[in-house]
Structures are given as structure tokens and as C-alpha cells.
UniProtKB/TrEMBL annotation:
Gene3D superfamilies named in the record: P-loop containing nucleotide triphosphate hydrolases
Catalytic activity: ATP + H2O = ADP + phosphate + H(+); Couples ATP hydrolysis with the unwinding of duplex DNA by translocating in the 3'-5' direction
Organism: Leucobacter weissii
Protein EC: 5.6.2.4
Superkingdom of source: Bacteria
Protein name, UniProt field: DNA 3'-5' helicase
Keyword terms of this UniProt record: ATP-binding, Helicase, Hydrolase, Isomerase, Nucleotide-binding
InterPro entries per the UniProt record, alphabetical: ATP-dep_DNA_Helicase, ERCC3_RAD25_C, Helicase/UvrB_N, Helicase_ATP-bd, Helicase_C-like, P-loop_NTPase, XPB/Ssl2_N
């Protein structure tokens, strides 16, 4: 019998032997419930987390399935305490539920509001007339435990009976956050306000939703609010459009920037029956409120005299659906706003649930659990995203810059290391290595980008570039008129550049895995003839730039990409 590629340890870490012939299958199954922590060349380390197990449970996986996965791939017997704790952790999900109850406390204690998952999309789950939210459990001891907690008690009203406690009307979101923090994630069965009905249909003439996109829409429709995880370039916007058609109500779409808003608008006009008059843009440049309104996170979180000036947008229409694009980038203030929107159906779209601020639990609580997740390599194998070769190319920090680096503060060292002048020459050599291809040079620091754009004789796009000029340059890139662009992090998010085949990453946000996902995603639109994309990261050797690069590699390893390390001289 062949020994498997996994070693499961009693501290809930799982070691994956990368060279093992079954490693790819094991990695694929581990990704459902475990998080990759370290990804050196030969042994990758995963950790089984509570949140990962709860997301797996919400997506329909069972503890028996997960333990069976570990048993099947383990080199040695799985510690019994790990198997037991997996079962116990997953059993906690749904032991508490948030439901609707009649206003009369003497009503039948066994009454359960209809599960949102059993409701037709857009229908009203709560009963007509006034009704209250209750926190319910079949186990009174659990209810007593959580209701006595210092941060939970102020969110609850009176006890209705042994199994139900009233939830204060405004506290639905905050209660879910606190219960997750205490290890008792509540399943929200209270249903949703249907919102004002609005006819939105997909116009599938000449195209149709791919199988995985349809499965994602179905998982959202039957499961209630939640998050769909798909690679960049795999059509998250179409999943959003499918969800809008399924719900059939006025919709608010929140996006990262104005360019993204306009791309959403164009895609909805192409793929649905919506007309231009039915879609509004609410941003720094325009304040249109229409049955489908696309707003930027920036405008929603902008303040005037200490107040959020545009919160009225959230109640400007009777929204039946709120779409959070790039939900892993949700600004912290929006979490508070989202806590107030628990009566509306919500769908989050993202390429990765990783948040560098550690607020994955808040996404789980306030947007909803993961409803669908399609591994990048699976979609690549189907030909819907391009294969990509990933390279880390190491350069030396010149002696003339080494002294300044050695005496710099910790805060400045990363900027100095990642802005090494030797990266200019290396970037030029990589561009020359790919004649006739569309190349993006992506970085973090404006002075570095300005110098790079001048050295490469290429246009530069930053946050200071007017939106119209950005769109003109992006369109010129799409049309092949500009084969090379130097861009700041404004190109990380929701920018559709289908012909980009080479990306050169010269600096980034301190090893952010979010950013790695977004930047690699710029290259993943399918290429003519099935050509592969090339993703280069330029790293300054023996500096903090190299240290942070190790964190970025974790994302690539999570998705099954190999990462070739080269010396600059090898190019």
C-alpha cells in the first residue's frame, strides 16, 4: 500500500509532501477546510481552523467527509483527538439559529420561520405583519451559556421560553459576529426583506453561463446570503448578474473603484435585459440612483465633518439584493454598515477569502459563509482561464544603495529594498524576452513607477490618473495600440485586460496574498491557441523584500501553481 502525502499532527497542522504523486489530489481536497500557512519548496504546512471547518459545513461538507479525506491521504494514522475535534467543531455550526417568531410570546414554541434556503429567490421569508427575531437552540444549556456572555447579553431581549430568547431588532449582524467569536456560529434562518421586485433577466443570446457559474448561482439561491470564490477572469460578474436575475429585485452593487463600476455597467448591459436608464453610477463623479445602482466603497465610506455623508444610499431604494464585489477588500467601516443590512440578501464575490487584517470571521458573519468555491486549477483544466508560469527573479541590491538600506528604519527598509535600481534593467530584459506580447509592470511606489515608466518609455497609470485617461489607456492596451503599461495598485482590482499575457511585479503591499491573487488574475483570461501567461516577481536578495515574497508565494501554492526561483543572470 502506498503511503499518502500527508502527515496530520495533533496541533491541527497538516504537512503536505509536495513531490508525492498524490500531492495534487490531497491539496485540492485540503483547500476545502484548511488554510496554507507555509509553502517552502518540499513540505507545505496547512492548518485546520474553526472558520475553515464552518465554511466547509455551510457549503454542505460533513465531518465524516473531512476525516475520510485525511485518513485517505495520511502517511500515518490521524490522531484521534484531531478527528474528534473536527467533528465537535463542525457540530457547533447551526446549534444556534436566528429565526422569526410571532409577536405573541405565548405562540407555539416550536414555530420555526421558513428557512431562506427553502424560499424562492426574492420571496419574503418572514410572516406578514410585525415579527420578532429570536435566538433559538434545541439545547437550553448552549442558550444559557451564550446569553450570559458579557458582549452577547446587551444584544438580547427577554427569554420567551427554554429554547428561545428575543434578539433586539438592530442587533442581528452584531450578534452573529459575537457568536462566531465565542465559537458558536449561528445559522441565520430569519429570512430577508424581499425588496422591491424588479425584472432582471439574463440575455443569453450567443452565450450561456458556464457550468461552474450556474452552480455558484444555484448555491447562492438555495443557501441564502454568502460568498462565492472564483478566480480572476472566471466570470464573477456573470455570477453576480445570475444572482440578480434569480432574486429579481432592485439591486445595490458595491465595487472597489470607478473603473470597476463602469466595467460592471458595460457587462450588465451586454449580458442582461437591463437598459442604460436602469443602471446608475454612484461615485465621486456621479450620483445616480436607479433600480440597479453601482456604488464605490470609497463613496460609501467618505466622511464629511466626521459623518458618513452617503449612507442615505443604503435606504434610497428598497433593495432586494446587495452585491459586494471583491469582498476580501471590504473596507473596515463597511463592516459596520453591513451589520445594519442583515435583512437584505447579500452575495460577496472574491478570488480569495484571505484578508490581511484577519477579518475573515466578519465576512463569514455579515456577508455569509462560503457558498461556492471553484479551485483555480480546475477551471484552468477546463480551458476557461489561462495556464500561468510563475517566476521569482532575484536581484542584488547595489552597493551604493546597501548602506542606506542598512541604516534605515524598519518602516523604510521594504520601500528601499523593493525599489532597488537593478530592477529597471531586469524589467527591460524581461520585456525584451516577450516580443509581441502585452506586458503589465505593476508596483507599489509612485517614484519607482515613474522612474520605471521613463526607463521603459511606457505610459503610467496611478491613482492620480484621471478616470477618463485610465480608461483610454486600458482600451489602447486591449486594442494592442499600447503593448506595455506601467501601473500602480489601481490595476489590482476588477480591471478587465483580457490580452495581458505578461506581468512583472516590481513591488507590492508587504507580501499580501490578496494582492498576489489580484495581480496574477490580470493574466488569466484565455489566450489564443491556449498560450500560457508569465508572471514575474522581482525580489531583492537578502533583504526584507525576499522575506515578504515568501508570504506571497503561499497564495500561489494554495492554488496549485509552481513557483520557479531564478537568479537575474539566468535571464
Amino acid at each position: 500500500m502506498t503511503l499518502g502525502p500527508l502527515i496530520v499532527q495533533s496541533d491541527h497542522t497538516v504537512l503536505l509532501e509536495v513531490a508525492h504523486p498524490d500531492a495534487e489530489d490531497a491539496r485540492h481536497e485540503l483547500a476545502v477546510f484548511a488554510e496554507l500557512e507555509r509553502a517552502p519548496e518540499h513540505i507545505h504546512t496547512y492548518r485546520i481552523t474553526r472558520l475553515g471547518l464552518w465554511n466547509a459545513r455551510a457549503a454542505g461538507h460533513t465531518a465524516d467527509e473531512i476525516v475520510a479525506t485525511l485518513d485517505r491521504h495520511a502517511k500515518f494514522p490521524v490522531p484521534t483527538q484531531v478527528s474528534g475535534e473536527i467533528a465537535e467543531t463542525m457540530r457547533r455550526y447551526g446549534r444556534l439559529t436566528i429565526e422569526r417568531a410571532d409577536p405573541d410570546p405565548r405562540s407555539d414554541a416550536s414555530h420555526r420561520a421558513p428557512d431562506a434556503s427553502s424560499q424562492p429567490a426574492g420571496s419574503e421569508a418572514p410572516p406578514t405583519g410585525p415579527s420578532r427575531l429570536v435566538l433559538r437552540s434545541e439545547d437550553p444549556a448552549i442558550l444559557r451559556e451564550v446569553s450570559a456572555a458579557k458582549k452577547v447579553a446587551p444584544l438580547l431581549g427577554g427569554r420567551l421560553d427554554e429554547q428561545r430568547i428575543e434578539v433586539l431588532p438592530w442587533a442581528r449582524g452584531q450578534l452573529k459576529q459575537e457568536l462566531v467569536a465565542r465559537g458558536w456560529p449561528a445559522e441565520d434562518l430569519a429570512g430577508y426583506t424581499p425588496g422591491e421586485p424588479y425584472d432582471i433577466e439574463l440575455d443569453e443570446s450567443g452565450w450561456q453561463l458556464r457550468d461552474y457559474q450556474r452552480r455558484a448561482v444555484d448555491a447562492f439561491e438555495t443557501g441564502g446570503s454568502g460568498v462565492v470564490v472564483l478566480p480572476c477572469g472566471a466570470g464573477k460578474t456573470l455570477v453576480g448578474a445570475g444572482a440578480m436575475a434569480a432574486v429579481g429585485a432592485k439591486t445595490l452593487i458595491l465595487v472597489t473603484n470607478t473603473v470597476s463600476a463602469r466595467q460592471w455597467r458595460n457587462e450588465l448591459l451586454r449580458r442582461t435585459t437591463l437598459s442604460e436608464d436602469e443602471i446608475g453610477e454612484y461615485s465621486g463623479q456621479s450620483k445616480e440612483i436607479r433600480p440597479v445602482t453601482i456604488a464605490t466603497y470609497q463613496i460609501l465610506t467618505s466622511r464629511r465633518k466626521g459623518e458618513y455623508a452617503h449612507l442615505s444610499l443604503l435606504s434610497a431604494q428598497d433593495w432586494g439584493l446587495i452585491v459586494y464585489d471583491e469582498v476580501h477588500l471590504l473596507p473596515a467601516p463597511v463592516f459596520k454598515l453591513t451589520a445594519d443590512l442583515q435583512a437584505r440578501r447579500r452575495i460577496g464575490l472574491t478570488a480569495t477569502l484571505v484578508r490581511e487584517d484577519g477579518r475573515e470571521g466578519d465576512v463569514f458573519s455579515l456577508i455569509g459563509p462560503k457558498r461556492y468555491d471553484a479551485p483555480w486549477k480546475d477551471i484552468e483544466a477546463q480551458g476557461f482561464i489561462a495556464p500561468a508560469a510563475c517566476f521569482e527573479v532575484r536581484v542584488d541590491l547595489p552597493e551604493s544603495e546597501r548602506y542606506e538600506y542598512s541604516i534605515a528604519s524598519d518602516q523604510d527598509r521594504y520601500r528601499l529594498a523593493s525599489s532597488a535600481s537593478t530592477k529597471q534593467t531586469l524589467a527591460r530584459r524581461i520585456v525584451e524576452r516577450h516580443p509581441g506580447e502585452s506586458v503589465l509592470v505593476i508596483g507599489q511606489y509612485i517614484d519607482q513607477l515613474e522612474s520605471m515608466a521613463e526607463a521603459l518609455n511606457a505610459p503610467l497609470i496611478t491613482g492620480q490618473t484621471p478616470v477618463d485617461e485610465r480608461e483610454r489607456l486600458f482600451q489602447a492596451f486591449r486594442d494592442g495600440e499600447e503593448p506595455l503599461l506601467v501601473v500602480s495598485k489601481v490595476a489590482n482590482f476588477s480591471v478587465d485586460l483580457p490580452d495581458a499575457s505578461v506581468a512583472i511585479q516590481i513591488s507590492g503591499s508587504f507580501g499580501s496574498r490578496q494582492e498576489e491573487a489580484q495581480r496574477l488574475g490580470r493574466l488569466l483570461r484565455p489566450k489564443a491557441g491556449g498560450a500560457s501567461a508569465s508572471f514575474y516577481t522581482l525580489v531583492t536578495r537578502d533583504t526584507v523584500d525576499q522575506d515578504f515574497a515568501q508570504n506571497r508565494q503561499r497564495f500561489l501554492a494554495e492554488q496549485g501553481y509552481s513557483y520557479t526561483i531564478l537568479d537575474a543572470d539566468q535571464l
